């Protein structure tokens, strides 16, 4: 279960942080302790209640695995921003996102195999064209429009003449 895995990772990070702290490695310990933090239901509820006091702020609490839906709401200007604890929404081309800064951005050297580009494009298309619900038209549609096949795009250009 995802929550059990997260709980275990937090516990492991606390233990690692305590060991590093005992060794006098304060900076490294702080990194582990930050990874061990969990946002409680009380903090979430308090934050939601605070934002609901503003007349121009709507709060939508989304269920798990709703990344495509959230990206759709932001990209269609039905929501202003998504606040999230991970960066999954980047894959869905979410235009306005407040994530934590991922540690992999600190990597200085990365070797990428040639096949990676093809697989990346296929994965990106899976995210970009995931089906979402449009509450205005009350129907399902792709998150972003499907691209026209090259021959269809060429025909459209020829029709303009």
From TrEMBL:
This is Exonuclease 1. Belongs to the XPG/RAD2 endonuclease family. EXO1 subfamily. Residues 53-118 form the XPG-I domain. Binds 2 magnesium ions per subunit. They probably participate in the reaction catalyzed by the enzyme. May bind an additional third magnesium ion after substrate binding. GO terms for molecular function: 5'-3' DNA exonuclease activity; 5'-flap endonuclease activity; DNA binding; metal ion binding. Its cofactor is Mg(2+). It comes from Teladorsagia circumcincta (Brown stomach worm). The keyword Ribonucleoprotein does not apply. It is found in: Nucleus. Its main location: nucleus. It is an enzyme of class 3 (hydrolase). 5'->3' double-stranded DNA exonuclease which may also possess a cryptic 3'->5' double-stranded DNA exonuclease activity. Functions in DNA mismatch repair. GO terms for biological process: DNA recombination; mismatch repair.
